[in-house]
Amino acid sequence: MTGIRLRRAGRLGFVLFALVAFGLFTLPWFRGDGGDVIIGLDLGYVESELPGTPSPLTQYFLEMAPLPAYLGLLLAFTVAVQRRRARTVAVVVVVSAAVLTVAAAAGLLTSVEDYWEPAEVSRYRLFALVTAALAALLLAAAVALAVGLRQVYHGVVVALLLAFTAFHLVNVAILAGQGVGETMTVAAWLPAPAYLLAAGCVVLAATGVAVAERSESAAAPASVPQPTARA
Asked: Taking the model in full, what pTM does it have?
């Protein structure tokens, strides 16, 4: 029962922290002197408040910061699945996450305007390429899950959540060190620990699956060889 409990606790924790991370983007991240607020889903409005042109990393964050929260919410229902039907549904969900990421990459390309400088156009094309690479990784993870490579899939999910943690934490720290840092709320920092805790929950769920499988193997009766009849 220990393995089953670990699996359930890990899955429940992943869903919980994914919901928390997504919910934090609906809260105010910046508060102006006049009472105006900018929530996490509208970070594009922050760029005009920055001194000068932001770095490519910060600008990409302002454009795509909510995407990891969306992906985490989808992937939360795909880990530690065991039955064939549940695994099929999980693969469909992962493919849906990849499609969402492709749509985000396409959105970056369609946002390019004719009057932009070539350097800015190249920057957004690079953003779209990075986002498309993330979609390709999700598709590869879906294939791994479909063929039964659950450990590989869980490793990809953990790696993604750790990358989301670092991506969010570094960029919020950069924004905090600029002019808008004085108006930043604590909600802007909290998705990073939510991603990190979600990664820990995936490890817990995967460990539970492994423990349960070892327990089942140990409890299975060994086959007794039948004696051969003598003539």
From this structure: 0.89
